[in-house]
Write the structure tokens for this entry.
Amino acid sequence: MNMEQIFGLYNYWIVICLMMTGFYIVIASPNMVKVVLGLNIFQTSVILMYVTMGKVEGGTAPIVPPSIANGHAAEAAIGHAAEAGHSIVAHAAETPLADVHAAAEAIVYSHPLPSVLMLTAIVVGIATTSLALALIVRIREDYGTIDENEVLEMDLQS
Amino acid sequence: MIDFNLPILLIVIPMMAAPLCVLIGHRRVAYVFCLLTTYAVFAISVALMMKVSAEGTIRYNIGNWEPPYGIEYVADSLSSFVVMFVSALGAIVLTYAPASIAKEIPESKHSLFFATYLLCLTGLLGICITGDLFNLFVFLEISSLSSYALISLGRSRRAPLAAFHYLILGSVGATFILIGIGLVYQMTGTLNMAGIAGRLPLEHGPRTVLVAFAFMTIGLFIKVAVFPLHSWLPNAYTYAPSVVTCFIAATATKVSVYALLRIVFSIFTMQFAFEQLPLRTALMVLALVGIFAASTAAVFQDNVKRLLAYSSIAQIGYILLGISMANQAGLTAGISHMFNHAIIKGGLFMVVGCFALQLGSVQLSDWRGAGRTMPWTSVAWAIGGLGLIGVPLTAGFVSKWLLLTSAFQTHHVIVAVLMLLSSLLAVVYVWRVVETLFFSEPTEKTAAAKEAPLTMLVPTYIMMGSILLFGFWTTYSADLAAAAASSLMGVAP
């Protein structure tokens, strides 16, 4: 274990801390709402893990800058024109296009897919949380408490 | 056109029908609509299976995006087999449902119940047919979330509590799977199962692969209810409405076993899991301990639903035992026991539902002497019970015989002996109920009880008939399982 692993991977250390914190709350807390909170922290740590995974050093958001996008549009138009036989126009436009290509290759993008996957995971997390809270409301209506130990005690008595 | 789009129709039809059920709102119309949907899905799955057995594996690119950019659905011999029996059970359980849910679920919730039921079915079928790892997680959550909601519909105040416990454990399991998927993605850069299988550095690979494997298997063990991680199952099955228990007990754990098979055999390969890692010993020990612990627990239960729930944990042990043999015969036994146990346990929970409807109780002491007033229902219990024990000429026998053969082939004689001993425990708990039904003096309540309505008896007897039928006619059970097993083995030469 060298310094690189300790400081270079600090995001993953945060992931592990969050994960264990959440998991401990899920196991240890008798309060059902806190259990749901723990579950949320647990799931959030996974989201952080995925987002970290997709980060490329020096990378920017994977959105094509307008200048390059316009360049591509121009290229497409030229392509069509060339098909129609106007090759002179294409020839004239060659130099600016090369600049655009160079610019496009100089940009480093972060990997978008892990973040996209996490959008789905967030939706799943919200559904889980809302269902869990709805169940807690019903348990509270029936038992008058959200403390798991008290609920189990009442079940043993009845 | 329809022929080509079968894999996606299987998922889209029930998924679209679910919100329509809510929009319809009227409970009878919603029921008929839901019933038609499940039968349509069943027809599609049969057509899909025919197509797979004629043409081999079908790969379907959603939206015509080639993998790895798009999501791929794959129907091979294993997934089409599981899809077929899950959708068949979905249709039959729903046919059986109306009288039972009329009594156990408040009327205002009926159309919501049907919608949730269809969503659960969608999720289960999706797990089977998807070829994309993240998609598998999403379908797993669709089916899990809807099954938590279904369980919480039970009349007892313990139902929401059971659902809550299941939700917490299930979500932890699903998150574990998600972590595993993330790590695998980190190693391979793709989510397509076939793509991952080709790229995963298994031999002397980085530790990430091991960690991913550990997270995924533990997560799935929670969903499958492997012995030490089974604590959610008894309460969930006991307090859910009878129809929900029928459906979930018959399908949900089996589909999770399918996901386990897919991940262990198709992605990580058998060699990695069983030779480099001690999964064989681990699975075998857990399965055997689970079989004995759960069967013993079942013997002492007074609540029949709870009795069957513990028996389910034991039967899952048999399935895992077959898988742990990791040879052709063992896998065939495991896969065909998935099917056989699904029809047997589904059928037995249907019988419990009939008694619950007529006697208003699932406590064994309230069933005394019901064999005289409800002979048909009681005989159905006896048939299902024989199947559960594994008496010859029932479906249970076929898979247990395959399992025994496989144990002898791999020289696990002790395992074979223990299996036979554990079947004796099954005899005990099945007999306790038979004795109460037929050889006890009826109480006032059971003496006044009437036979269950035909709408429930007919589907129950369809299940019982299939238990007997698949006891000797194995073309569509064990033979298909054998084909599925050899295709799984083929992936890992």
Notes: DSSP finds 21 helices and two strands in chain B. Strands of chain B lie at 58-61, 72-75. Residues 278-493 of chain B form one domain. The mean pLDDT of chain B is 90.
